[in-house]
Every structure is written in structure tokens, then in C-alpha cells.
Request: fold
Amino acid sequence: MSIGRARDLIAAARAAYPENAAARAQLAECAARLEEPLRVALAGSLKAGKSTLLNAFVGQDIAPTDATECTRVVTWYRSGTTPTVTARYDGDASSNVTVRRHEGRLTFDLGDLTADRVDRLDVEWPASALSQTTIIDTPGTSSLSKDVSARTFRMLTPENAVSGADAVVYLLRSLSASDVQFLGRIGAHVGGESGPLGVVGVVSRADEVGAGRADAMMSAKEVAARFTSELELTGLCQSVVPVAGLLALGARTLRQSEFAAFEALAQVSDADLQLAMLSADRFARDDAPLPVDAAMRSQLADRFGLFGIRLAIMLVRLGVNDSPSLAAELVASSGLDELRQVIDVQFGQRAEQLKTHSALVALERVLTTHPTAATARLLDDVGRLLADVHGFQELRMLGRLRSTETALSGEDLAELQRLIGGFGIDPAQRLGLGADASIEDGRAAGLTAVRKWRERAAHPLVDQFTARACRVAARSAEGVLADLGGISGAGGFAGAMRLDLDAGAVRVTPMPDA
Reply:
């Protein structure tokens, strides 16, 4: 699915509407969407931890987490040179919003505006995580106010319009019928007839699954595996990852004074520590016999939770002796690193593919709504591009491989995951070749992969799921062979090729320069 071909189709469509202002405006939005960063929405029920996860992902407190007016509004976070918040309200009006911090917490002061008047908030913030991704924080879908929930529905699943997001991170505390229903609506809008393309689930506030115990994340991983299995039956989500958002945020913003407090608490006996940590309130009590003042203990409980405190103390006792090392260990234990890897593989590296799909679905709607003499031809071209869905089959298979057992050995499973883009979508990465690989190396590795995975898929004793995974891998290898001419430069592949499949044989022949 080529972003260049999508640009050409949108340009051809604009030429077909020389005097239709509405259609031309909609097509201009399609074209602009291709050039923007990927739009990733955070969605889920009320109090699922969306804003906390956003802050953890960015590594800064940029999203209000208290239940104020601004958390009832769809908020777009984009990269900017200086922190700026703008309210869009009453259709086409806008005004600057004051950013305040009170007792360490950030909030957006809407002034005389109320949430019901605000269409959305646009936040520009200097953060590297936003340079390639626009993050959209949405109100809870299970809010007691139907109007608040409706704002999320209008953004992600609008009537007679394309979703405002290219991909979705959906936060789950449980897996209810309403979650499954909403994921189905997201899939229909974000993926169109191809189904949900970029949907990753998160077991949010994962440390609370095990009541803050030291093994809480193990319990959360079991819950995530169950959710993945149940959602796989519906085809609504590629994978589910457990994340302790509060711990991740605390770790990414760990202060030296907090590290010193953890070091002091690590000297306390297990019996005294366990007694003091029966609850967060007990831990922060003024009369608690601990070598850290009550204000700092309250801060630790607020920023890390009991699970994070227990984990930090354990790591210090095991020999972690500086704040950067402790922060890295806590982030890894929070599940944030795994989520970022999943998002990179399923969203980041396929950003052009996801944006192109969104633009094409939008183009299809414009053409259908405003028919002209050129509509049938253009719709045929759009349909052919949308039918190029192997990349999305790869995404879904990567999600299933995280939770489903196969008959493949560990080495073969790793090779299959690499081939279908689990570690990067560059042809050399897929084939497991180094930077100095030649075109001959690429041909040989690609042909070997095609033959190997076709044979595995056709084996009479292989189970149905493993056979399907092998077919996807074989198709990916064929695609790599066809695309090898897309890489040039020192140490890379060069020379365009054509893949010919004739009666089971595989022939790759150089193609003349375009």
C-alpha cells in the first residue's frame, strides 16, 4: 500500500471536483492527513489511567490526571516548540488556555469556558515522543454523563465520517461486553472492511490486579493473556500488554530525593516494613516508625503506589545503587518498555501504511458521497489499494503469536516473527542479514525463506494455526523478494526485482530501471 499512490489518487479526485467546495475541502483533509504524524488515540473506560499512561509514554507531566473539566474534553497532544494549550469551542472559535500546577499536579484552566462548550483542546508541547506521533486523549467511555462518552464516540467512531485516529491504544480494567462492543465499533471505523488494523490493548493500572503485591505484574500478565485469547476470537485487537502506568511515570521522572528515601527504607526490617505497608494511608501516617518523613512517604505513595515502593526497595536491596539504574529497572518492570516496543512494531514502523489506509477510507467516503463521472474509476483504484492487506495480516499474526502456542521451535518461531516484521520491516531486518549484505545474499535468503515456509505450511501434520502463520511468513518472504530494489546505499540491497511464481517454482529476475 503506497503512500505515493494514495497522494496521486487524492490529486486525481480533487481534479474531478473543480467546483464542489465541500468535496474539495474534504479531499484537502485527506491529503493533509498523509503528511501529518500518525494519530494514536488513548481510549477506555472512566478512570482507566489514560492520562497517566500518556504522561508515562511522553516522560513528562503534560496531561491533567485529576477529574476536572479539561479531562471531559478530547485533547490532542502534538509536538511544539513551547507549551501551548488552545481550546476550540462553539464551532470555529478558539482561545488560549492557562496551564497551572497546584501541589505538583498540572491542570488546564478553562476560565469561563465549560467542557460542554469545548469541542477539543489542542496541546503543543516540546517532547521527543510527540515528534512522530500525535496522541489523542479521550474521555472515559463509561462516564455517567452520556455527553462526555459521546465525545469519544464522535472522535473515534463518527457517523458517516472517518475515525479521527489511525491507531488506538485501548485501556482495560476488565473485559466487559461494552468494551467488546466499542472495540468492534473502533475496528469498523479505523479499519473499514479490513477490520481493526492498529488496535493494542493495555491492562491498565496493572499493579492493582495483584493488590500491589510484589508479584502483581505476574498476575496482570495472566489477565492480559486471557484478554488476548478472548479478543482474538473476535479479531478486535492485535495484542494486550499489562502496564503499571503510575509506576512507569514515577520511574521516568524519578528524583534524587526519592531514590535517597528508597535507600533509607531498604534498611528497615521486613517485619516493620510489611506492617507499615498494609495500606497507603498507614504507610504515610505521621507516627509510622520509618526513617523517612511523612511528607516524603506520602509523595512516594502518590507517585509510585505500594507496588512501586515495594519493588524499588527490593531492587535497592539487590544492589541497585544509583537513581538512573533504579529508574530503568522500574520502567522495565512497569511494562512500559514492552508496550513501547509493541507500539513501535505495530504502529511506528507501519505509520505510512496506517495513515495511507485512513486516507483511502476517507477518500472512498468522499467519492461515494459526491458521485461524478470519474467516481467508478477512482473507486476501483481505491479498492485495489485497500485490498493490499498483507501488512495488516502480519500485524494480526504478530499479536496472536504473543498469546498462542505453535508447533514451531524457539528458533523457528523467532525467525518467523522476524520475517513478518516483528523486529522491523526493513527487508534486511526481515531476512536477518547484516548491513554489509549483498543483493545476492538477499536473493538467496529470500528464496530460502519462501521455500521453507511454504513447505512448513503444507506439512500434513501441522496444526491449523501454525499452518496459517507459515503461510503469512511465506507471503512476507515473497514480498521482500519483490521489494528488494527499494533499498540502496552502502551495504544495502540494490536493483529492482520481479517475483515470478509459476507452478510452485520461484524465480527472481532483475527489472530495468524505471
